[in-house]
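ingest -> validate -> predict -> emit
validate: passed (alphabet ok, no gaps, 133 aa)
predict: started
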Amino acid sequence: MKLKRVIYELYEIDLASLHDQPDWHEIDREIFLEFDGGERRYFSWCNEPVQYSVGSQDHRFNMNEPDHVIDVSEWDMWKGLIGSKIDFIYHDESHQVLELRGQNGSAYLSTQEQGSWLADVLHISNTLPIPSS
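emit:
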């Protein structure tokens, strides 16, 4: 299946940081990828396999309705992945860094907040972060 769109489900507080840095941002809630067949894959920080790892599942992590829903498919960080088959590659055993790799590039999800690891934040970037040891 090919990636159709990328959606951020946000808390009010998440809006302030979305445009602070051109190559990365951090959100407290979750994102989902929607594929051409309608399948959705949600990503957020979670507690498996270790506390504050990047988790993935087919339904929301947070059952409450988000304050904001933003389609970010056309943002520079994501637009190169739209229309691609996506591979999900964890870069470490504790699942602190997840690469979303398409034919024309990658986006990275990690659990860090302003450089501090093992955080209850989803850090989204277009460069590979180096996880804590």
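The first helix runs from residue 76 to 79.
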